[in-house]
């Protein structure tokens, strides 16, 4: 035991963990640990952070804003293990670029450079790898970022799913920009930039021969241009997040718990397209928990609501932007939704993930 109280014993004593089930009952990793919900949070809090000790920044998030010699930069890294590799509207290559670009953009940064690391399974066709690599290049050009460094590794046949991708990125943060979950406060208007649940349903439609009567295409897209348009209004934007794993529900719960505020949603205002609603109804899923890859959630000062919405709706990626709720002082750390029947329901943090391997 070190002086700072962090154990350095290589053996983890699970009886001393304070997290709830199912971690206590599972001495091994399960798929839910990668779902972006409660299990992911518990893994970070009770395993990674204690193991990292004083080397870790307890504010670990999707991106970090750092001051490097007077220059403010955002830094982010992400890994992509989506199955299948291609799906309606995109591929693992698009996700790898857009996912990291968007994590940087949610700090208000202008993405500048990316690294790429390919983990390839032995036996994967070179033609398939070339298609994914071309998708990475095309997405980087569209996002106006440079691919400046990278790595390639190969794993034995049967120990991967063809291609895994990791990207890391650096962006520049403008003077006066301060966008982080801790800044959400009562009175803020909660805005989403368009239809939710699209990406998760698009990936799901490729699995097990599922068909929903219509093609749903992924919404994967780089969002930094939309964020720049929002910042150009001069509005006081407190918090931005892209609701990927765990969907809108997980993202709002994380912000509410970080800022110690409540969030009240109007369920009737949620922009759920008919195809997503029908697919979720068929499979018993809640669209609030289904992943997105080209949408953002914003917490803005109520005085700036209309200016921000106007700027978002004038941008191609924000044309369907809508206010879906407000930040409230009641029930801090909790998200509730007002239903169409006039009641309320708790929108809790998901334990694991409804749809595994969606990014």
From TrEMBL:
InterPro entries the UniProt entry points to: HypE (IPR011854), PurM-like_C_dom (IPR010918), PurM-like_C_sf (IPR036676), PurM-like_N (IPR016188), PurM-like_N_sf (IPR036921)
Superkingdom classification of source: Bacteria
The PurM-like C-terminal domain, residue ranges: 185-330
A biological process term (GO) from this entry: protein maturation
Pfam families for this protein: AIRS, AIRS_C
Domain PurM-like N-terminal: 62-173
PANTHER family assigned: CARBAMOYL DEHYDRATASE HYPE (PTHR30303:SF0), HYDROGENASE ISOENZYMES FORMATION PROTEIN HYPE (PTHR30303)
Family: Belongs to the HypE family.
NCBIfam families, sorted: hypE
Protein's name in the database: Hydrogenase expression/formation protein HypE
Gene name in the database record: hypE
